[in-house]
Amino acid sequence: MLKRIERMAVQCPPTKPPRSAKYPKETSGLLMSVIRTLSASESNEQRDREKAKLEKEYKKSDQRLDELISLHDEDLSQIMQLFGQLSNLVTTSRERVQAVKENLQACKTLLRCRRDELKKLWLEGVEHKHVLHLLEEIDKLRGVPNQLDKYIAKKHYLHATQLLVSAVSLGEGPLDGVEALRDVRAELNTKKE
What we know:
Function: Component of the exocyst complex involved in the docking of exocytic vesicles with fusion sites on the plasma membrane.
Order of helices and strands: HHHHHHH
Number of strands: 0
Distance between the termini: 92 Å
Structural class: mainly alpha
GO biological process, one term: protein targeting to membrane
Keywords: Coiled coil, Exocytosis, Protein transport, Transport
């Protein structure tokens, strides 16, 4: 089907309609002719004939509309039911969205009120994380002499040297001010010598 349409498009390129061609609009054209007829008519008889003609046409269209409605009554009722259901769904969705917006606005307001408190708690969390890291490093440093003895006993001198160098740099670096590690640092320096 698509190929046939493409072939037809290639064979017959679209042409532009002439500029003078105007396509009448059925409803507005009919209304304009009625207005012209009524304004041009000189007697009441002509107006009454035009009025009778219009009423006759309206009755025909009403009958046609009634016939169409009776033919498609079930479809129309189903469509109206579906429209009602969809309308209810849209309404409830709008209400939910509005509730979510209000909740978000309330949360923003509460967060603004609690910003200083949250900032303080965040800083405390960062401090605690740093202290925890230092405590883990202290624990590692305290276990280094035992590990060194194990490496030396197994004659793993390279591992012992690497462990000793990293432990000494750690003890002299961030953990330099910890007095509880003075004995461990002294022992490590002795082993280093």
